[in-house]
Amino acid sequence: MDCDKCGDTAVSHAAYSGLHLCEEHLCASVEKRVRRRVREDNLLGRDATPEDPETWVIGLSGGKDSVVLTHILHETFAKDPRVELVALSIHEGIEGYRDESLDACRELTADRDLRHEVVSYDEEFDVRMDEVVEDDPKNMSACAYCGVFRRDVLSRYAADIGADKLLTGHNLDDEAETALMNFLEGDVRQIAQQFDASLGPFDGASSERTRGETEAFVPRAKPLRDVPEKEVALYARFEGLPAHITECPHAEEAYRGEIQQLLYDLEERHPGTRHSIMAGYEELAALAATEHRSEDPALDECEQCGSPTTGDRCRKCSLLDALEAV
Ligand SMILES: [Zn+2]
Ligand SMILES: [Zn+2]
């Protein structure tokens, strides 16, 4: 097949759009979608100036998604003095696996002269995921512990350096899975909160979201969320980016795996399903957020670490206590 844009040999066919694209036009199309998302979400506040730039922290794991996001944002904003990019990688204490992906992160950021910080669970919490999965005091999946620790490190670090935004490399497949899982769990309040924290557009005038009272949190954004996983992988390959593709040895999220398979089958038979799930989900989540905002419980500070929480102690501190008691 030929590329629909230029007639060269097509390397990808997207059933949801019907488009056949060559290497060059596929890459251009991925970049265009990320830039459009940045624009439509008002990611760059209007009051950002060269004298007073915004700082964006990018969670860089070394996997293809965060590597592609970092590369495209760097291409887009390297010469724009209104934005400073900082890449942040986390070492979870997974021997071998994480060391290799950190090499990918270092190569990517060194080539681009991009500020790169690495923090570890070991230094932050005195825990290593390799040991957490052995002890497992809460009888949970590795990803459940790791997710709590990762969110804590990312948001605390972003707040410490005074970041305006925290960006993560979730792609369309990730987001459609999460949307479907949230919906099936039936927790509308959680849908509303996630919309406010990481999906809703910014108001354009500043780094605040439409919701104005979230000083304690660095707001999150996911500018890669319009791009399907397969196209992210092709982009990384064609651009020759140093992405580490091995899966985490502790990964086991049984429920997400089921949803993944379900979505894969649906998309095969009904191309465009992921896009329509996200379009509908974001619209409904916005309505839910408006409805729930007025009745949100006031957040307290965790009595152990000071993080915002609805109870006495945050989730991270209770997990750390459980691990210590083993
Ligand atoms: Zn082409
Ligand atoms: Zn705490």
Write structural notes for this entry.
There is one protein chain. The chain has 326 residues and is of the alpha/beta class. The protein has helices at 23-40, 64-77, 97-112, 121-125, 129-135, 142-160, 172-185, 188-199, 229-238, 254-269, 273-293, 315-324; strands at residues 12-14, 19-21, 54-59, 83-91, 115-120, 165-167, 220-221, 300-301, 308-309. The strands form three sheets. It has a five-stranded parallel sheet, with helices on both faces. The mean pLDDT is 91.
Q: Please work out how many helical segments DSSP would assign.
A: 12
Mean of the pLDDT scores?
91
Largest sheet, strands/sense/barrel: 5 strands, parallel
User: What is the domain total for the residues?
Assistant: 1
C-alpha end-to-end distance? 59 Å
CATH topology: Rossmann fold
Outline: globular
Our Rg estimate from Cα atoms comes to: 20 Å
Weakly predicted, low-confidence segments: none
Name the CATH homologous superfamily: HUPs
Which CATH class applies here? Alpha Beta
Broad structural category: alpha/beta
Cofactors, ions and other ligands in the entry = zinc ion
Please render the helix and strand layout as text.
Layout lengths: L11 E3 L4 E3 L1 H18 L13 E6 L4 H14 L5 E9 L5 H16 L2 E6 H5 L3 H7 L6 H19 L4 E3 L4 H14 L2 H12 L20 E2 L7 H10 L15 H16 L3 H21 L6 E2 L6 E2 L5 H10 L2
Parallel strand pairs: 3-4, 3-6, 4-5, 6-7
Antiparallel strand pairs: 1-2, 8-9
Helix pairs in contact: 1-9, 2-9, 7-10, 7-11, 8-11
Features:
single chain, alpha/beta, about 325 residues, binds zinc ion, 5-stranded parallel β-sheet, about 50% helix, 12 helices, two-stranded antiparallel ribbon, Rossmann fold
